[in-house]
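In this section we walk through a basic example: taking a raw amino acid sequence and producing a predicted 3D structure, encoded as discrete structure tokens. The instruction is simple. Fold the sequence below.
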Amino acid sequence: MKILFLYISLFGCCITLMAQDRKVNTVESNILFEQVVKALEQKRFIVRFNTMDYRSQRRKQLDNETNFLILKDDSIFYQYDDGRREYRLHGSEFYMVPDMSKGKVIDIKINKDKKGTYKLYMSTKGKARHSSYTIKIVLENGTNKCLATIKDYWGNHYYTGTLYPLYATTVMKAN
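The resulting token sequence is shown next.
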């Protein structure tokens, strides 16, 4: 009888701890969402990309340390690195470097819909030929997960990623 009482007590404690853990996680995610929205409105954030879809090809997993987009005021930096370092073509070896693009934001708009989803639209202009692109970022309500569409000269790139305030994370820029 004592053992049954002990099991029931432990089960009750576990349920209570799980409920408290959910409350803490909810509070933490709400605080993070508020920080991310503030960073979005201040135009000072980093989007670290986790996956990419390009031209209806299959989804590719990315290293979010080397695949990202940084917006700081009116300057933007975009880096895509698919992880390939070398490939061979007709017996010759080539070494790949990450695609990088720096530019200035020409136009930026932020909208919030009825569900609380934030959408950011911006156009950029780079110095190099074919370096202008448009970006759409959709931030899911209550989280820092986002979807990003980058449209450039070569086509549309669809990313899933995580949005952070500029001061909250770091990334690895290629030389």
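Looking at the output, two observations stand out. The helical segments are 2-42. Residues 2-42 form the longest helix (41 residues). In the next section we compare this with other chains.
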